[in-house]
Each structure stands twice: as structure tokens, then as C-alpha cells.
């Protein structure tokens, strides 16, 4: 950590900025290394790094084949951390995720068998295909960063990042996540198809004789822990705090923000957790830009992914084909920037 005793606030900020620039080089290398394998999903990679720095989790929504699994697997290889994939199915049990006690005849005692949740990076594939009990087990582990098996509580590894995916097209045989549980995810990212040029690069890299580029380890888990501490220390001015609160408040009371035309579509607005996550994600964005302070552009850069899953729309919005993204765009246009 940074020694700040006896320094003025300006000197502390300057010292923090120098440290962030130094540590930021490692994350730039990490982004470059992932980019050698993942083509055309820069926003997804950026959001993975933001969640990593802000100690959050990511919900990805997109059709199959958009490199969701490859992205987090590549991230784990570049960090030299443990990776685990959980394929969610209707017959999955909570113990299949968290682990259970197994009786050993030789010792005549119960032993703990840890589940796949005990890894640094978790891919929860098609989370909406598992029943509510399994979803709750995963989300509780995400929130508490620990799992209780029998009478013993086991802490989860550090760093710990869950990337959950859901298919927006198939709804048959799925168990949609309740709004309160979706709120546990810091970011919800909607993946798009790559461009023609990007898809040509993807095709080329996947069909050459030597196969995909081998990922090199460029950062250690302890570097991520250090970066998370630095991210928390990034300066957030009171004016930017008010800006964040104004944005979130506008999702609850759109008429007060001057967008009364969408008030009839909103069933409920974003929770206070949105304000917290918006601030933390903005700090992580500032870190990636190698700054020791947050500016309004940082907030605007992450607002869509932080708020997308936190604004509830009613049937009238569905009938008029109004999406949360449209409402967030209007909010960002109308709320005064400090």
C-alpha cells in the first residue's frame, strides 16, 4: 500500500497516480495478451477487467459462439490462475456447485469434497437453465465469497470472478433469474456479432495449422489484489458522486429528470446497489485509463452495463418495444454533467 503520512491531499493524489501508472502497465499487457486470442469483443474484455478491479461479477447475454468461454479461459491462463466451468442443467444440485461431505470408510469420517466453485475464475454457462436452488447457491457464494459445507466455512480463492452466461433466444426449459438475483451482478454485457473484418480474423486464427496463439502469463494473482486496493483508493469527487446519484435517481423518477415520456414504461428503477457499483466500476475505468481520479466520462463509459439489468420495464414497454438501453441513453442525455 501507499504511504501517505505527512503528505498533502495533492501529494497523495500525485503519488497514487504514479503507482497506478506503474501497475496499469501490467493490465495493459493483460488486455493485449487476451486480444491475441479474443477478436472483436473488446467491450467484453474491458468489462472483465473492470469487474476484476472492482471485485464484481459479470452477466453475459449473447447467442452461442461469441467466445464467452474462451475469454475467461484466456484470462485465467494470462493470470496463471485456476479456471472452472460449470455447465448449468435442470438436474444440477447445489452440492454439484459448492461441494459436499463424503463418508470415507477407511477413516470412518466425513471428508470435504470441494465443488468447482473453488477456483479463481468461474464460467457459469447458461445459468438460467438451472433451478432456483442452484442459482441461489452460486449467487450466495458470489456475494459472501465463502461456502459452508457441513459445519465448516471455506473461503473462496482470491481473486474470484464469476462470468455467468445466458442465451437470450432460447426460453424453453429455462428458469429466468429473479430481478433481486440479477442485481447481484455488477455488470450485464450484451454481446454483439463481430464485424466482417473481425470475423475474417477469427476464421483465420482458428484454421491455421499451428492453431490458436498460446497465451503467456503476464500478471500474477497478487498483482490483481494490489490493483484492487489501488482502485478503491482512486479519488471520487463530491460532484461526481452527485452525478452518479442523479443518474440512478432519474431511473426511479424520470419525470424529475425531464424524461416524463418514459415514466409510463418503468416498473421500478435502479437500487442503491447500482450507485455503489457505478462508482466502483467508474473507479476501475479510471484505473484502466491510468488516472488517480474519476471524471464524468468514466461514469458514462460504464453506466450502460451497470444499469442495463437494474431498470425494470412493464408490459407497456414490451408492447412498444422499448428497451432499457433507450431509457439509459435518455437519462445520460438529460442529467447535467458536472
Give a summary of the structure in a few sentences.
With 338 residues, the protein is an alpha/beta fold. It has helices spanning 9-35, 42-54, 68-79, 94-98, 132-144, 179-182, 196-207, 221-233, 238-252, 272-288, 296-307, 315-319, 324-334; strands spanning 58-61, 83-87, 99-104, 109-114, 121-125, 146-149, 152-155, 161-166, 187-190, 266-268, 312-313. A hairpin with a 4-residue loop joins strand 3 (99-104) and strand 4.
Any overview of this molecule?
- There is one protein chain.
- The protein is α/β, with parallel strands linked by helices and 338 residues long.
- It has two domains: 233 residues, P-loop containing nucleotide triphosphate hydrolases (Rossmann fold, 3-Layer(aba) Sandwich), CATH 3.40.50; 105 residues, Helicase, Ruva Protein, domain 3, CATH 1.10.8.80.
- Helix content is 47%, strand content 14%.
- The strands form four sheets. A five-stranded parallel β-sheet has the order 2-5-8-1-9. The protein has a two-stranded antiparallel ribbon with strand order 3-4. It has a two-stranded antiparallel ribbon with strand order 6-7.
- The two termini are 31 Å apart.
- The model has no long low-confidence stretch (mean pLDDT 85).
Amino acid at each position: 500500500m501507499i504511504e501517505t503520512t505527512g503528505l498533502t491531499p495533492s501529494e497523495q493524489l500525485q503519488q497514487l497516480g504514479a503507482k497506478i501508472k506503474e501497475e496499469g502497465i501490467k493490465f495493459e499487457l493483460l488486455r493485449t495478451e487476451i486480444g491475441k486470442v479474443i477478436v472483436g469483443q473488446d467491450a467484453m474484455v474491458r468489462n472483465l477487467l473492470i469487474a476484476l478491479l472492482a471485485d464484481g461479477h459479470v452477466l453475459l447475454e449473447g447467442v452461442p459462439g461469441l467466445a464467452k468461454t474462451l475469454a475467461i479461459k484466456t484470462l485465467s491462463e494470462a493470470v496463471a490462475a485456476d479456471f472452472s466451468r460449470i455447465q448449468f442443467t435442470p438436474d444440477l444440485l447445489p452440492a454439484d456447485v459448492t461441494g459436499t461431505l463424503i463418508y470415507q470408510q477407511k477413516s470412518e469420517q466425513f471428508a470435504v469434497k470441494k465443488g468447482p466453485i473453488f477456483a479463481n475464475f468461474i464460467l457459469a454457462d447458461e445459468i438460467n437453465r438451472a433451478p432456483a436452488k442452484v442459482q441461489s447457491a452460486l449467487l450466495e457464494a458470489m456475494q459472501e465469497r465463502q461456502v459452508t459445507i457441513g459445519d465448516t466455512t471455506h473461503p473462496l480463492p482470491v481473486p474470484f470472478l464469476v462470468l455467468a452466461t445466458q442465451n437470450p433466444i432460447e426460453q424453453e426449459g429455462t428458469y429466468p433469474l429473479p430481478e433481486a438475483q440479477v442485481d447481484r451482478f455488477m455488470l450485464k454485457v450484451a454481446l454483439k456479432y463481430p464485424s466482417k473484418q473481425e470475423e475474417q480474423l477469427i476464421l483465420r486464427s482458428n484454421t491455421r495449422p499451428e492453431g490458436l496463439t498460446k497465451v503467456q502469463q503476464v500478471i500474477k494473482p497478487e498483482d490483481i489484489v494490489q490493483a484492487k486496493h489501488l482502485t478503491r483508493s482512486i479519488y471520487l469527487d463530491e460532484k461526481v458522486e452527485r452525478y452518479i446519484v442523479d443518474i440512478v435517481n432519474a431511473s426511479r423518477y424520470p419525470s424529475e429528470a425531464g424524461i416524463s415520456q418514459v415514466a409510463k414504461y418503468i416498473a421500478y428503477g435502479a437500487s442503491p446497489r447500482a450507485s455503489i457499483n457505478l462508482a466502483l466500476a467508474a473507479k476501475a475505468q479510471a484505473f484502466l485509463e491510468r488516472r488517480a481520479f474519476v471524471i464524468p466520462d468514466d461514469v458514462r463509459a460504464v453506466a450502460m452495463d451497470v444499469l442495463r439489468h437494474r431498470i425494470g420495464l412493464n408490459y407497456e414497454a414490451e408492447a412498444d418495444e422499448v428497451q432499457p438501453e433507450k431509457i439509459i441513453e435518455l437519462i445520460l442525455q438529460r442529467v447535467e454533467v458536472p
